[in-house]
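Look at a sample.

——
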Amino acid sequence: MKTEAGRRKEREQSTMTLADRLGADIEAKLLAKKRALAEEQQRQRAAEEARRREEARRRDERKSFAELLEESELDWRKFK
């Protein structure tokens, strides 16, 4: 049979978080790594977006007049 002190100790142990179980230095390292990974992902997304914009710009530069006219929403009948 467990005593009140034993039950209290079990409750305290069950409510411990991961941060409580890890040392403060390990927790700080993990948080720093998390921030670094998030920043790296943000940089990669920005670089990918810039690459896509550049590709779209280059495609637009290489389009012929017929392609540009075909994509245009202007209708010559409106200006007749």
Observations:
- Residues 17-73 form one domain.
- Helices lie at 4-14, 18-21, 24-62, 65-71.
- The two ends are 97 Å apart (CA to CA).
- The first helix runs from residue 4 to 14.
